[in-house]
Amino acid sequence: MSISISIRDSIEKSSWIRKMFEEGAKLKEQFGSDNVYDFSLGNPDLEPPEEFFKAVAGIEKNRKSGAHGYMPNAGFLDVREAIGRTVARDFNIEIDGSSLVMTCGAAGGMNVILKTILEPGEEIIVIKPYFAEYGFYISNHQGVMITVDSNEDFSINIDNIEKAITEKTRGIIVNSPNNPSGKIYSSEDIKALSALLEKKYPGGRPIFILSDEPYREIVYDGKEVPSILSAYKNTFVINSYSKSLSLPGERIGYIAVNPEIESYSLVMAGLNLCNRILGFVNAPALMQRVVADLCDVTVDVDLYKSRRDLLAQGLKKSGYDFNEPEGAFYIFCKSPVMDDVAFIRHLQKYNILAVPGSGFGAPGYFRIAYCVSESVIKKAIPEFEKALKTFIAE
Fold it and tell me: Taking the complete model, does pTM exceed 0.85, yes or no?
């Protein structure tokens, strides 16, 4: 065989998100892009803020010698210091640039952490529903993903997590606002989780929280995302600018480490080494300089809110059942049948592309990404209504 068995198996069960994206390309070719309603991929359609383009132009205008050369694996110190000041303020913690590592997006950051902390066969707990790629990231580093159910409203079920902890547990991934549910985990949930992990140290080894927060800035209705970084000392925060600045193609993000984490110096050395040996080496130099100037800038979140409200109203009127998202840009709907893939296939008859919940560890649901124009949402709502009625009739 020309490729490894594990990769062959991964290809066969690879992300439903990408599969649906590819289905969309075929439908658009057949019916025209204006007649296909593609809610499959969380690819922001908003352009980056104007400040981004000004920052890029400013860097070009004020060229600095060595700005595109080799650098410390953690990234430019002045960039980390600038971002560190924002992290200290937003996460209510004393931290500076020495506790940050610039990464190739959140995916790069997650892989760097897992490479640093995992021994073969150790376990990472993941709360359902979860981002579909987590299992691949964990297996990259010979870890084992252990999934646990959330509550009916997608909040954290502490009892389920406690039951899942073993002597092999090395960490838990927390994703809030959550992809795909849009749920923001409450401060009470975070306190309870922190208290559990403080007392659950089988074998004397810390259980880390890997807090995946690329949607932290995309929240609605005055909601706030509680700071896990300041709530529990053995925490890594992984963030990116893919959503907050609409820069997914630039692959720029960071890891922030609680300065009180166990074996701090060794952990930081490990992150720096793994950033290099995984092949990232360091985050893109140009984008580091750019985001350092945009610490207090985000896309217009109100645009996402108006889309959420428009879509939610239309879906409710059409008879769909879901919890209204508190953040991110997804609605996680209940499928009318447990076979979510069958319903997704039915939606395709109406040129609607969504992603089955099975890909997120939650069969019986499907995800709608509303990072699309309002015109697409308005045209799609009647088709959603028809699809549900005809499916029930069948």
Answer: yes
